[in-house]
Amino acid sequence: MKKRILVACVGIPVILLVLFVLPAPFTPALIAVLSVVGTYEALHAIGMNHPRIALYTAAVALAIPFWVYLEQPHTWGLLVLLVYLVAIFAEGFASHFRVKIDRVGAGFFFACVISYCLSSVVRVGAMELRTSYIFLPILIPFVVDAGAMFTGMFLGRHQLAPNLSPKKTVEGSLGGLVVGVVIAILYGLVFGKITQVEVNYYFLAIYGLLGGVMTEVGDLAFSYLKRTRKIKDFGRVLPGHGGVLDRFDSVIFCAPLIELLILWLPAFSKGAGA
User: Fold this and answer.
1) Arithmetic mean of pLDDT over the chain
2) pLDDT (tens digit per residue) in 211-254
3) Mean per-residue pLDDT for 150-162?
4) Distance CA 122, CA 134 (A)
5) 43/54 Cα distance (integer angstroms)
6) What is the mean pLDDT of residues 12-28?
7) CA–CA dist 169, 150 (Å, integer)
8) Taking the CB of residue 138, how many other CB atoms lie within 10 A of it?
9) What distance in Å separates the CA atoms of residue 121 and residue 183, rounded to the nearest whole number?
């Protein structure tokens, strides 16, 4: 527990520094680093240990956040994907078919899904009123995870999904959803004052509730992957948490939903005097 808290005390200020203080290109750079590490962890989990194919796949994961940031995904994206396809099939031929195509496909799937979903943070950062919105895709899954963990520790009685994650409880899950709603509303109070925008607290409550549900779905989804591969953690880069995927698995699922909710139900808007 001490290691988890220490990582949070260091990691959260770093994320806030990147999102709110450093120049805009640092945001896709942060997401790119997380995507590459997460993709490597997924490749290792599925047994894709071919070094050059792993490198090519990581390069795709690295490129996606910058395509999103530059808003020119078509030309450069098509070029990189074409080079990637030629390279991995050339490696397959050179290995005399020892490289399994199902693992190559799974690796590419994880690279695209992990990187593009985490890039929701980059896309939200390009929206109007970015200062009010940009932290929400990370904040909600983080606080829901924490709320579920602490509620489960003190009140948990009934297992939620014992075959996937024996420590998760129904009570913890409900507690996480409540924390998500409360923190989303408090976030609106704080950023409404800071940025002088109008706040729709009902929409923020929806962000917290639906984002909380998706957070828990993401957590269980990656627990499923770990159980099928018989591993406890995806990595060791974050003491007390495991790997990047162990910490950001819920963000991968929650962030795209928050992006969609911001587009469909904008919780912040400019006031009459803004």
Assistant:
1) 90
2) 999 999 999 999 999 999 889 899 888 887 889 999 999 999 99
3) 90
4) 8
5) 7
6) 95
7) 11
8) 22
9) 18
For residues 216 and 180, the answer to whether their CB atoms sit within 8 Å is no
Per DSSP, the residues of the chain read -HHHHHHHHHHHHHHHHHHHTS-TTHHHHHHHHHHHHHHHHHHHHTT---HHHHHHHHHHHHHHHHHHHHT-HHHHHHHHHHHHHHHHHHHHHHTTT-S-HHHHHHHHHHHHHHHHHHTHHHHHHTSTTHHHHTTHHHHHHHHHHHHHHHHHHHH--SEEETTTEEEEEHHHHHHHHHHHHHHHHHHHHHHHHHHTEEE-HHHHHHHHHHHHHHHHHHHHHHHHHHHHHT-S-S-SSBTTTBSHHHHHHHHHHHHHHHHHHHHHS--EEE-TT-
Give the position of tokens 């109007």: 128
What would the two tokens of residue 246 be? 């162990």
Nearest of 236, 235, 247, 227 to residue 41 by alpha carbon:
235
Report whether 157 contacts 171 (CB < 8 A): yes
Q: Is the pLDDT of residue 274 over 50?
A: no
Q: Is the pLDDT of residue 71 over 90?
A: no
Structure tokens at 9: 């005390």
Q: Which tokens sit at 135? A: 């932290």
When mean pLDDT is compared across 28-32, 94-98, 223-227, the lowest value belongs to 94-98
pTM of the model: 0.93
